[in-house]
Amino acid sequence: MRNIAIEHELYQRVEKAAQEHQASVHQIVAEAFRHRLWELDRRKISQESNTYRQRHPELKAQYLGQYIAMRDRQVVDHDLDFQVLRQRIPQLFGRAPVMITLVGETPGQPLFRRGFRIGATGS
Fold it and tell me: Which of 13, 35, 44, 118 has the most other CB atoms within 10 Å of its CB?
């Protein structure tokens, strides 16, 4: 385990929360980190979704009927088979947030959001 410096007042709040919730300080801190990383991933995917909608006409001309993976506002991979593409993404990017969606006639919601939530729709 690595050490992390934390402000004294914040550490006291964490200790109090741990006592109130019958958890360890480690559990409280780990959960807080997971939650913050989830929020950052969600924000990143939201940016990718916006980029997809903005670039839809261009992407439609090139990838219509294909699944695309977007990261850092760029198409980083594509395939006709969703499952094949979905399996390649962790090999390329690990747990980093990557949006996968089907490029259709109109810009729909992402099908897959690697890094914070997996779903059949963009909810």
Answer: 44
